[in-house]
Amino acid sequence: MLSVCPGEIYYRDLSCFCQYPEMCECFKPTKMSMDNDSNANSDHLQPDSIQETYAESPSTDVEKSEEYTVGKFVIVNYDNKLFVGQITKLLLDNIEINCMVQHGKKNVFKWPNKPDCIFYHREQITSVISEPEPNQRAAQLTKYDWLLFNENVET
After folding, report:
1. Ramachandran angles phi, psi of 17, nearest 5°
2. 8 Å CB contact between 98 and 85
3. What is the pLDDT of residues 28-39, one digit of tens each?
4. So which domain of life are we looking at (predicted)?
5. Is 142 helix (H, G, I), strand (E, B) or coil?
6. pLDDT tens digits, residue range 48-69?
7. What are phi and psi of 55, to 5 degrees?
8. What single string gives the DSSP state of each residue in 16-70?
């Protein structure tokens, strides 16, 4: 349940914190408005679509924040070096990522023996990619993701 302005409450059956502290559209939230002349009993509540509120409010880079969800794979820039990793936690503008180790300059990535989880700022993430494909005892990026990785290395 969330209230963004007086007299309006957004609710849904399941909690989701993917865009905390803002309300996301996961699990179809419903907006309830109270009439000005009501005494807040349920007969006066009118459900509205949350879509209308989002259409009226200024855009806040919603598309970009929707990309970052737990479990997604990303390319992250740390000290001008690129790493492939999986998002493990979201905390406002900081994202915890478990990074893989690249072997040489090849398209070969492995998980380290001990998880390498570090919080990065959203601006350090260069791309969202698909899950690396298994290849013997390691994993490799798809051709498209490998091109993205190399494009970001050169810039």
Report:
1. -120, 25
2. yes
3. 667 666 755 444
4. Eukaryota
5. coil
6. 444 443 444 444 444 454 578 9
7. -65, -35
8. --TTTTS---TT--EEEEE-TTS-S-GGGEEEEEHHHHHHHSPP-SHHHHHH--T
Q: Is the peptide bond before 21 cis (omega within 30 degrees of 0)?
A: yes
Taking the C-alpha atoms of residue 51 and residue 113, their distance in angstroms, rounded to an integer, is 45
By three-state DSSP, how is residue 147 classified? helix
Indicate the pTM of the whole model.
Answer: 0.57
Q: Where are the domains of the chain?
A: 2-62, 68-154
Residue with tokens 């050169």: 154
- Among residues of the chain, what percentage have pLDDT more than 90? 46
What are 121's two structure tokens?
């700022």
The CA dihedral of 144, 150, 152, 155, to the nearest 10 degrees, is -140
Give the whole-angstrom CA distance, residue 39 versus residue 68.
41
DSSP 8-state secondary structure symbol assigned to residue 14: S
Specify whether the CB–CB gap between 117 and 96 falls below 8 A.
yes
Please name the residue that has the structure tokens 């990074």: 99
